[in-house]
Every structure is written in C-alpha cells, then in structure tokens.
Amino acid sequence: MKKILGLFIFLATLLVISFAFTKNQKENQISTYFLGDKLLAKKGYFDNLTEDKGFPIIKKQNDLYEKNYSEFNDIVHDSNSNLKFKLQKVINEKKYRIILYTILNNKKKDSIDFYENIANIRGKDDYYCLSYLDLKKNEIWQIKVFSSKANKNLSFISFAKKKVTKSGNIKTDSLYYLDESLELELYNFKTKS
C-alpha cells in the first residue's frame, strides 16, 4: 500500500512539473515574437518625445523594428481563446509594412497597419507607423510620424491606444494626439500610390 501511495505521489509530482514546464515553454515561445517596442505603452512615452529627444528615440525604435522584421516570416499567435493574431509582411519598392490581423474562429475579423516604413513620402521625409501589441491586455499602442533626417525632427500624426474586443474588432480606446491635417496628407499619399 505504501509503495502504491509513493508511486501515486511521484506520478502526481511528475505531472505537475511537466505541466509547469509545458506552460513555461509556451510562454517563452510567445515571447520570441517581436510584438513591438513595449516603450510605446510606458506612461509618459509621448511626452518624452520633445524636439531634442524625439528624433533619436523614434529613429532607434524604427531601427529596432527593421532589425526584427527584416528576416520576418508571417506568424500566427494562438491564444487560449478563439481569438488569434496574425502578423503578415508586405513589401514593395518604396513601402515596408507589417499588417496585424485579428482572427476569430479561423475567420479574419479586422486588421491594422502594425508597422510601416515609407521612404521619401514628403519630399525627403520618411513615414513611420510603430505599434506594440500587449497580449495580456489585448491592447495596441501606436504612433505615426513623419521623420525628417535632414532636419532631425518629427511631425507627429497620431498617438493612440486601441483595444481588441472579444469579437476580434480593433477599436480606438484612447486618442492621445491627432494632427488631422497630417493624417489627411498621409491618406492622400497612400491613396495615390
């Protein structure tokens, strides 16, 4: 009887350790995806992008995105629910984009430009869209800017937090900054090209 009880305790302990290891492996696998720079979700992030500090911060972040997405293949993140996230790369001669799709019950529900880099959009300016996906909160933090390498300055288009609903829709939760004239200029450029 003692041998059976000892064997039972041993097997139960082994099962618990195996479950914890499997869960830890899954979490480590998720963290290997580059889901954007967490700095975007940090309190005071946008306020710290002053004229003298903003350009180097955005440039460094864009370099980080380019590094992580240069060898990137499309990925799908499976969660414990029916909601999945897919990151897909789209490249042409002037544009570099990563699109984030939400997938519910194996059907695409919504999408958003997650990362975008367009060279020479306004004469010599570049356009960057940088995002961060917080999987724990189902939030997307996003900043859109025109960046002038010649003058080393930025023209902010928008900074927002979006929420992914249980139905897979992406909704703006908080719009912290918006320059409507620059957003219109960007829209006009994208529709022409």
List low-confidence stretches: 19-31
Strand content: 35-45%
Number of strands: 8
- Please estimate the helix content: 25-40%
Q: Which of globular, elongated, flat, extended, rod-shaped describes the shape?
A: globular
Q: Tell me about the biggest sheet? A: 8 strands, antiparallel
- Could you give the order of the helices and strands? HHEEEEEEEEH
- Cα gyration radius (Å): 21 Å
Number of alpha- plus pi-helical segments: 3
Could you tell me the mean pLDDT?
Answer: 83
Helix-strand makeup class: alpha+beta
Termini separation comes to 78 Å
Strand order of the largest sheet: 1-2-3-4-5-6-7-8
Structural write-up:
The chain contains 3 helices and 8 strands, in the order ααββββββββα. It has 193 residues and is an alpha+beta fold. The longest helix has 30 residues, at 2-31. The chain is globular, with a radius of gyration of 21 Å. Mean pLDDT is 83; it is low at 19-31.
Secondary-structure map with pairings?
Elements: H1 2-31, H2 51-70, E1 75-78, E2 83-91, E3 95-104, E4 107-122, E5 125-134, E6 139-148, E7 153-164, E8 170-178, H3 180-192
Antiparallel strand pairs: 1-2, 2-3, 3-4, 4-5, 5-6, 6-7, 7-8
Give a quick set of tags describing it.
193 residues; 3 helices; 33% helix; alpha+beta
In short:
This protein has helices at 2-31, 51-70, 180-192; strands spanning 75-78, 83-91, 95-104, 107-122, 125-134, 139-148, 153-164, 170-178. The protein is an alpha+beta fold.
